[in-house]
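Re-running the complex after MR caught last week's input typo. The corrected sequence lines follow. Everything else is unchanged.
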Amino acid sequence: MTRRPPMTTLRTLAAWLLLTAALAAAAIEPLNFDDPAKQARYERLLHEFRCLVCQNESLASSGAGLADDLRQEVHRMVAEGKSDAEIRDYLVERYGEFVLYRPPVTTRTYLLWFGPFLLAVVGLAALVIAIRRRSRRTPPDTLDDSERERLRRVLDRHREP
Amino acid sequence: MRFLLPLGVLALILAFLGIGLTMDPRKLPSPLIDRAAPAFELPTLRDPEATLSVARLREHPVSLLNVWASWCVACRQEHPVLMRLSRRDAVPIYGLNYKDRREDALTWLQRHGDPYIASAHDGDGKVGIDWGVYGVPETYVVDGEGTIRYKHIGPVTGEVWRDTLRPIIERLRSGNG
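Corrected-run output:
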């Protein structure tokens, strides 16, 4: 294999990235409203829902066929003047709460919502306890006479002639 | 002794990660289980004048609604199993032909066989959305009341039939579902 100068490889890579990004963008057909308020609501809602096909993408960014259909459904409901809650219920009824990127706070999701804070509190408490214990264990930083004598001898030995 | 606590915490985290790794994130529990099957009335694949609705499924104590498409690769994989089931009259199977072109779907059935009593043609996938379809093939078990009792996501293999679907169907048929 011939070694190409690194810039050419980089340029090829950049071209590929641009091309794939353009393709991905082309897959999502924009749906528009005349009313900017509705447009903003529509776009905000799309970011709140998960695409069921590519599960780490929202409806706003997914190029999957189902995401396209669901965008149309959300568009229709926003145009019909449905409330956010109604649109959310529509999707949850069909696909379950997994479709929501922001899961609701229920008894089932307490651990999910508050677990990280709980972990932080436990971690901080453990840290404080550990530091306190260590400071109690360290001996006092004053030297007795024999130690002082030893220190002086060591320092003398290493003094520049 | 002083390593016991960190080790315990590590073991706990590993246990959770282990559980997470063995779960398939593609298989989501359907909120439609034990709820009435969403109503639909669609033209059938073979005869666009005739329609198929949930009422037809309710005629049987238990039936399957299999979501399929000619463009779906995994549908090819499960097809021989469905064909075997239909030849043995194991359970009435209806089809929901999802986001497909009628000609493509009919050609596909001609080539691979037709295990369905009838297939509804859901060209734009609207009924699929009502049923919460997100990964074809999917198979719903519907009882005589028109209630969805189970949903299988992915191809129906011989194993899935033997270990999952058949026991559910038998339980429903014996009336203590």
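None of the earlier attempt is carried over here. Chain B touches chain A at residues 25-26, 28-32, 99, 124-126, 129-135 (CB under 8 Å). The CA atoms of residues 99 and 124 of chain B lie 5 Å apart.
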